[in-house]
Amino acid sequence: MNIDIISLDGKKTGAMDLPTNVFGLEIRTDLLARAVNWQLANSREWLAHTKTRGEIDRSKKKHGPQKKSGNARHGARSSNIFVGGGVSHGPRNRTNTNSLPKQVRALALKTALSGKLSTGNLIVVDEAALSAPKTKALHAQLTKMGALNATFIVDSFETNFDLASRNLPHVKVIPTAGANVYDILQRDKLVLTSKAVSMLVARLSKEETEVAVEAPKAAKKPATKKSAE
């Protein structure tokens, strides 16, 4: 499938062929949901953490006699009813990280790229570079392209373009190595540089080769000894 390559000014500068094994897959919302949930879960941080009575560094010795003290029968001072003791039912620092097979991650990324192309929200530019770091000029160019709400995946960061895009609230620029499902789906448009397309195709093709596993060979049955007559 062919797609036009344009400049940031909106002029056509060429065309390129997109491989169907990366940009022509069927849209599977289940894979996209798994990939997004995996990314969000791994990005969460739980900072609040309280210690239980078992984690308090205090003596576990019984602090008073069992009887004839006029006080209740208490054990260790690490109990939650004493000052400096543990906390009952307090916030605990827990991890929400989970795993997602590499093959599923690669397939989800291909699905996200295919979805942008099938809906007409994929734009390929020759390069993401500016002569000066002017946000106003970049805003005018992206307005003409219809990419004011877009994720840019570039082959390399160009200083002027990077500085100019930082002041645009709905424009995000990420390198090819950082291409992910969440950032692609978060914006309306996906803008790729022509070199980034080649790098993405090479990366996904390499991952597809790595996860390919040969079918296990049938185990040979051990030779049975003939019974002595």
Rounded to an integer, what's the Rg over CA atoms? 29 Å
Task: Estimate the helix proportion, in percent.
Answer: 25-40%
* Helical run tally: 7
* DSSP strand tally: 6
Strand content: 5-15%
Shape-level CATH architecture of the largest domain: 3-Layer(aba) Sandwich
Sheet having the most strands: 6 strands, mixed
Our count of domains comes out at 2
- Low-confidence segments, given as residue ranges, are none
- Would you list the SSEs in sequence order as H and E? EEHHHEHEHEHEH
CATH superfamily of the largest domain: Ribosomal protein L4/L1
Q: Would you give the CATH topology of the largest domain?
A: Ribosomal Protein L4, Chain: A
Query: Whole-Å distance between the termini?
Result: 72 Å
CATH top level class name of the largest domain: Alpha Beta
- Class inferred from helices and paired strands: alpha/beta
- Strand arrangement within the widest β-sheet reads 2-1-3-6-4-5
Sum up the overall morphology in one term: elongated
- Give average pLDDT, whole number: 87
Molecular structure report:
- The chain is 34% helix and 13% strand.
- With 229 residues, the protein is of the alpha/beta class.
- The protein folds into 2 domains: 2-44 and 99-211, Ribosomal protein L4/L1 (Ribosomal Protein L4, Chain: A); 51-95, no CATH class.
- It has a 6-stranded mixed beta sheet with strand order 2-1-3-6-4-5.
- Strand 1 and strand 2 form a beta hairpin.
- The radius of gyration is 29 Å and the shape is elongated.
- It starts with a strand and ends in an 18-residue tail after the last helix.
